[in-house]
Design brief:
Rossmann fold; 27% helix; 18 strands; globular; alpha/beta; 2 domains; ten-stranded mixed β-sheet; 11 helices; six-stranded mixed β-sheet; DHBP synthase
């Protein structure tokens, strides 16, 4: 298969905010696959009501078939076709956060999408993205596009069209190049299918914001870490069950006081003949000694770190890093989303650097205190 790459020209004048190749929508309608930009990461889209087309997504990505997809829509009313539930919490969250980086899991309706989208579960994940290219494609293609991230399964999610080309060239029909994504991490996933509202995947919209919108009287309570879902028999939501976001090199997440972290990383990087890499804050980048050093932004700027993180992981691969160390960015991580992605990218290798060169394994590396929270 030859993959065509085309640029989407964003036009801000009304009434149409984007000039989108009609061919992309036609590919979706006839059962093909198109990668397209959203505000979070690039998605790999198919007609959500075409079971054979959705099955192609799993084949192209090498994705386990029980890992659900997210249905992308371009207006609130579209979710009412996917669920018979008229939960007022659904409307409240949509009014506050849609279009935007929030996915809602709701009870699957009688005439909803096929099993290939839901992983056979009785729920469906739905999102209304804010990116004008995504919105235009969804509308022109029929209103419902099932789409996970447009990468090979397990790899860092794509935040540039070049990342999609690297992973899926020759495996899909078209890639729409809409430039770099703005958010850089996948959407928050909130489960509304049960009486208790749960955050299944942290994103840049935090549990506290969601609790405030829902006026949850008990605030936020703690559930076991969502990292435990990696060993579960079923994937509750996209991105929960399997290892994700991993670079090719072995990565270790390092926490602790600044001087202890720097000392441990420099000592570890100098004690090997492997190509070493450090993913650092801009404040500390000049203090490291390694073959590859990449800054993700200020330790206090969560938006910048999130936007650059996946690109940094992919650059480590491009530069041949075999042994990678990463700061934990806890100061910038207000929702637990960055910690969640770093936990998965490191395969759970997380150490706490102490004085005198000592380290100890971090006992709860699964995405920070907010990972897997309930409201």
């Amino acid at each position: 298969m030859q993959t065509r790459v085309t640029k989407a020209e964003i036009v801000r004048s009304l009434p149409e905010p984007v000039v989108l190749p009609q061919e992309a929508a036609e590919i979706i309608r006839r059962g093909g696959l198109v990668a397209f930009p959203t505000e979070t990461v690039y998605g790999l889209g198919a007609d959500a009501f075409n079971e054979e087309a959705c099955a192609k997504i799993y084949e192209a990505k090498g994705r386990p078939s029980d890992n659900p997809l997210i249905v992308h829509i371009a207006e609130y009313e579209s979710i009412l076709r996917l669920t018979d539930d008229r939960n007022p919490r659904m409307k409240a969250l949509a009014e506050s956060f849609w279009p935007g980086p929030l996915t809602m899991i709701v009870k699957r309706g009688r005439n909803s999408v096929p099993d290939a989208v839901t992983g056979g579960r009785d729920t469906v994940a739905v999102r209304w993205p804010s990116h004008p290219v995504a919105q235009a494609l969804i509308r022109v293609a029929g209103g419902y596009i099932a789409a996970p991230s447009a990468n090979r399964s397990g790899r860092p999610s794509p935040t540039k069209a070049s990342h999609v080309i690297e992973d899926l060239d020759g495996r899909i029909d078209m890639i729409i190049d809409g430039g770099d994504t703005q958010v850089g991490l996948e959407s928050t996933i909130v489960d509304l299918s049960e009486e208790e509202v749960r955050i299944l995947r942290p994103g840049m919209i935090g549990a506290e914001e969601i609790a405030r919108v829902l006026a949850a009287p008990e605030g936020v309570s703690q559930l076991p870490s969502a990292a435990a879902a990696e060993e579960a028999e079923e994937a509750l939501a996209p991105g929960m069950k399997y290892t994700h976001y991993a670079p090719k090199g072995e990565m270790t997440l390092v926490s602790g006081d600044k001087e202890h972290v720097i000392s441990y990383i420099n000592r570890s990087a100098s004690g090997t003949d492997k190509i070493t890499g450090v993913i650092s804050s801009e404040e500390n980048a000049a203090l490291y000694k390694a073959d590859v050093i990449i800054s993700c932004g200020s330790r206090t700027d969560g938006a910048a770190v999130a936007q650059r993180l996946y690109a940094a992981l992919r650059e480590m691969d491009a530069r041949g890093a075999e042994l990678i160390f990463c700061e934990d960015f806890s100061e910038a991580d207000k929702t637990g989303a960055i910690a969640n992605r770093l936990h998965k990218a490191s395969g759970g290798r997380h150490v706490f650097a102490e004085a005198d060169g000592r380290v100890r394994a971090k006992q709860n590396p699964g995405g920070g205190q907010r990972d897997g929270t309930a409201i």
